[in-house]
Structure formats: C-alpha cells, structure tokens
Design goal:
Layout (H helix, E strand, L loop, with lengths): L4 E5 L5 H11 L13 H9 L5 E8 L11 E9 L6 E9 L8 H14 L5 E7 L3 H9 L3 E6 L9 E7 L15
Parallel strand pairs: 4-5
Antiparallel strand pairs: 1-2, 2-3, 3-4, 5-7, 6-7
The structure holds coenzyme A (COA).
Length: 181
C-alpha cells in the first residue's frame, strides 16, 4: 500500500508551517522548546535550510486547505558536522499528535540516515530525557544506544540521555518504504 505522506527537505518557503508545527508539539518536550534559549523562532532560524542543516518533513499527500501546517505530520531536524566532519546531530523530532504510532518518525529517521549516509556522515547523535518512554523505545528500536546520562539535568529525577548510532553499519530489516525521491 502507498504511504499517505511524502518526505522532503524544507526550504525558506516553509518557514511559517515549520514554526507552527513546532508550536503544535511544543509542550510534548521537556522543558518545552519555547522555554529554551531563543525559543521557537530562533530554533527555526538556526535550523531551516542553512549550510549546516535542515528539516525533513513528512506531509500528507491529500491536504485540507484549512490546515495551518499545510499537511505536516512529522518532522526531523539535523545539524551536520557535529562532533566531527562525519557526524550529525538530530536537533528535533516529532510526529503530529493525531498521527503517532503509524511509523511516520521511523520513516523520517530512516530517510535521514540514508540522506546523511550519502554525504559521508557515519554517526548520528541525539539526546532525549528519561521521562519520555516513547522516544527511548523509539530510538533504541532504531538502533541508537545510550552512551552518556546526565542525572537530574532537566529537574529532579529527570535525566538527559545521550544517544548515538553508527549508520555506516547497515541495519537488518529496516523495511524502508519511501516514495518521494
Ligand atoms: C517519539 C515520537 C517521535 C515517535 O513518533 P511516531 O511517529 O509515533 O513513532 P513510530 O510510529 O515511527 O514508532 C516506531 C517505533 O517506536 C516505538 N514507539 C513509538 N511510540 C511509542 C510509544 N508511545 N510507546 C512505546 N513505544 C513507542 C515503537 O517501538 C514503534 O515501533 P512498533 O510500532 O513497531 O512497535 C512521538 O511519540 C512524538 O512526537 N513524541 C513527542 C515529541 C518527542 O518526544 N520527540 C522526541 C524528543 S527527543
């Protein structure tokens, strides 16, 4: 069966939709993204279509014209040249609350690995927090492993967990199915 969404890189023209999508999922993050550093506007400015990175978005093929995120159902943000020239960092990942558990973030992350792998990137880094079991299960199932934990980093009892994955080692049974090359 054909997926109901396609995956593409964002451009400057997507600024508003990207910003609205991050606002939609803001409070799913701990602490909310709007409360970190320069907040959501700075995150979009720093991450949208720059020489160092961009977002990949999953968009519904059939969109409702009243949808103010223009059909975005998932998004992953990456920064190249993280710890070295051959590594990158996932700076954002979320699926629209009404489209979770449909494999959208899995496909976004697999597409990102493929895309970065073609640019000689060998390792991807990211972090999450200990009270986010969905993300922990998600990343571990995708083959990321925790290499460092900062205790109480986000408040009492809430740790930051740092993950990495060597994408130069092919994973078995990725079952990748993407349609928008
Ligand atoms: C974490 C998140 C991105 C997962 O997105 P998603 O599109 O729903 O995930 P997928 O459908 O691709 O799930 C792939 C696998 O992840 C795991 N997973 C996803 N959601 C899960 C949940 N709520 N509980 C346990 N495991 C979960 C499952 O193992 C799943 O595989 P399965 O369906 O074969 O069991 C999503 O829950 C989200 O947007 N959360 C809020 C924002 C966030 O926490 N982002 C990460 C910050 S670091």
């Amino acid at each position: 069966m054909d997926p109901i969404f396609s995956i593409n890189e964002t451009s400057e023209a997507d600024y508003l939709q990207v910003r609205r999508f991050i606002e939609l999922v803001d409070t799913d993050f701990y602490p909310p993204l709007s409360e970190r550093g320069g907040g959501i506007p700075e995150r979009v400015d720093a991450g949208l279509d720059t020489p160092k990175g961009n977002f990949l978005v999953a968009r519904l093929k059939e969109r409702d014209s009243s949808d103010h995120t223009d059909g975005i159902v998932g998004m992953v943000g990456y920064t190249r040249n993280w710890k070295s020239d051959d590594s990158a960092y996932i700076n954002f990942l979320a699926t629209h609350p009404q489209h979770r558990n449909q494999g959208i973030s899995r496909e976004l992350c697999l597409r990102l690995e493929e895309f970065l792998g073609e640019q000689e990137i060998k390792r991807i880094y990211l972090c999450t927090w200990s009270s986010n079991p969905a993300a922990i299960k998600f990343y571990e199932k995708l083959g990321y492993y925790a290499y460092s934990v900062v205790l109480d980093d986000r408040g009492r009892g809430i740790n930051t967990i740092y993950y990495k994955k060597d994408i130069s080692i092919p994973m078995q049974n990725n079952n990748i199915r993407l349609d928008s090359r």
